[in-house]
Design goal:
single chain, mainly beta, 60s Ribosomal Protein L30, Chain: A, 15-stranded antiparallel beta sheet, two-stranded antiparallel ribbon, 2 helices
């Protein structure tokens, strides 16, 4: 399997996880608010401080983002580009957000694809500090209770990355058992999820969020994204028994690579290792 050498030593535990409870809900993001504040208010109204958000459209402006890029110093295996600030209204096509905390305040990690006002198709990592909701738009949200994604220093990658930590349960109403996960580098995304579920007797799970990066991409239809540094959003995913009875992860994604290439489709199992991180929320549907 492809791998990339990280600047720091690998952590012994390759999946960081916290068991929690969760609930799906519909959310409309309010126009005129910073995207971070709009998401925070929407989750708070449902009794949650964090969770995941999936976008199938939406309008942003002002808008700022970065793309994956090669590392200029060698301090990281890959890095970010300079900041881009396209004029006018940018219209999202697909995106995934993890809402958590950084330095004790709300923060998000969001990857998306979009079309800018001049018609250019783009994708990347949306910056919370400079992005505003231009028009109200509806999203799919999943709040988690008993866990929170918190940005902390990660010695292996030399970044501050979101990872799940346990938090006291709140009064938010929940309907499902859930797990907040972070996959560490150089392990296959599908294989790690399949093993995680198998080890806990989970026979069916639904992905409620997914933001991260892979070492290039191999799609189930044979397409290949060769540039190694990517930013990826999981559009949908299910882990369930395949034709042979074993658990299989069916993951539909959208991705941008460091050359600006865009792609969407279903991931090939066992051939898509994590580059830096992969944040995920699993909703347990059935156990064996």
């Amino acid at each position: 399997m492809r791998s990339v050498t990280q600047p720091g030593p690998p952590a012994p535990e390759r999946i960081q996880w916290v068991e929690a409870r969760g609930r799906a809900f519909a959310l409309t993001l309010e126009a005129g608010l910073p995207l971070l504040e709009a998401a925070r208010r929407g989750f708070a109204a449902q009794g949650f401080a964090g969770g995941t958000l999936n976008m199938r459209g939406g309008a942003l402006g002002p808008f700022a983002y970065v793309m994956p890029a090669l590392s200029k110093t060698g301090a990281n295996a890959a890095f970010y580009s300079d900041t881009f600030r396209p004029a006018g209204i940018t219209r999202l096509t697909v995106g995934a957000m993890t809402l958590g905390q950084r330095d004790g305040a709300p923060f998000f990690h969001c990857h998306a694809l979009w079309t800018e006002a001049d018609g250019r198709a783009g994708g990347g990592h949306i910056l919370p500090e400079e992005t505003v909701v231009a028009e109200c738009f509806a999203v799919e949200a999943f709040g988690i209770d008993g866990a929170m994604f918190v940005a902390e220093p990660d010695p292996e990658t030399n970044f501050r990355l979101f990872g799940p930590v346990a938090r006291a349960a709140s009064a938010a109403g929940t309907t499902s058992r859930a797990f907040a996960l972070r996959l560490r580098p150089n392990q296959d995304v599908a294989g790690a999820l399949e093993a995680f579920c198998r080890d806990r007797g989970i026979s069916r799970a639904k992905l409620r969020g997914g933001v991260g990066s892979t070492i290039g991409v191999r799609f189930a239809d044979g397409r290949i994204v060769e540039p190694f540094a990517t930013e990826l959003a999981i559009r949908s995913g299910v882990i369930a028994a395949g034709p042979g009875g074993a658990l299989e992860a069916d993951l539909d994604i959208a991705v941008v690579d460091y050359t600006g290439g865009l792609a969407e489709g279903r991931l090939e199992r066992c051939d898509n290792p994590v580059l830096m991180t992969m944040e995920l929320v699993l909703e347990v549907v059935a156990v064996s």
